[in-house]
Amino acid sequence: MLEKPNKLRAALLGGLIIGIITGLPAISFLNKCCCCGGVMLCGLISLYLYKQEFNDEMAPLESSDALILGIIAGLTGALIGTVVGIFSSLIFGPVDKKIAIRLLNWVEEQGTLPPDSLNQADEMINQLQKSIDEGLKLKDILSELLFGLILYPIFSMIGGLIGYGIFGKKKPAAPPAAPVQ
Amino acid sequence: MKSHIRIYGLAAVLLSLWCIGIISVPLLKQSGWIQTADVLYSFFSRVCHQDDARSFHIDGEKIGVCIRCSGIYFGFLIGLISLPLSHILRRKNFPAVGFFFFAVIPIAVDVVLNTAGIHSCTPVTRTVTGAMFGISMAWFIFPIFIEACMQLFTRNNIGPLDTGAVQYVRKTQ
Lengths: 181, 173
Prior knowledge:
The complex is a heterodimer.
Chain A: H1 8-23, H2 25-33, H3 37-52, H4 63-92, H5 95-110, H6 115-134, H7 138-168
Helix pairs in contact in A: 1-2, 1-3, 1-4, 3-4, 3-7, 4-7, 5-6
Chain B: H1 3-30, H2 34-44, E1 57-58, E2 61-62, H3 67-81, H4 83-91, H5 96-116, H6 123-156, H7 162-172
Antiparallel strand pairs in B: 1-2
Helix pairs in contact in B: 1-2, 1-3, 1-6, 3-6, 5-6, 6-7
């Protein structure tokens, strides 16, 4: 029986997509709205890509492969995501924060918020404006990287395990037919 | 103690800490630990939009994640605790993939109908569909997770877990 294919290619590809999803402002907001569903989907995609590299002569795909693949993809994604995030904020500026301020202003203008929430919204706008004025800080970059290194491997691993549960399990081969007498 | 029980216990502890972290953010803020609360808000902001209008509040402060995410995480914890029930369902030939679709369909229907303007999501629908998703995902994923950890322990010959792991893998094969 042949050895299993190398996991690195599928994991790096999944990590690259995670990096893009979490690094670009608008897409990363969508990912957050889906409770990190984008990162889980990338873990699942990594496993699917890895499974495509198997043939019948190789040892079968195991759940531990899905686990490792998801973790590697998540770690890679956190690193790439931080780099993409730095470049996108240098190129586009703090787009996500500006969108958030615009949204909060719009909600305030609707006049449906209770006084307590109105104060909170004002506080949030001030904080966002302050962070825009301060610009890109090393502390923010490091926290982004640290939190990413903790969170994305977990969610990507979950995606990988979901992928294994859906299309990873192989039905046991049927026993050879008895010789016809 | 068998190693799969250790893994189960460790995961339950970590997940409980995660859920406590979600609830503790507003409590920390109320009791003056503002910087710690801000760090936790920032931590959970990586996985949730934290929209104020779509979050539960404790003493006027929103918790770490939105209502749907809270439903998912607390549902996942409930699912983990009630995992033996999933084995009972499986013995009655309930397919494992069935858990996945049971998880995804209600939440997808809720979101799609809301987006289409046919019905509007309420805190109740968000909580219920999120919790259903969390419970079913725990039942779907966790047996695979334990199996995966066992395979890793067996392959790497990790000392104290050895005997239990080997026995578990032999039983499952």
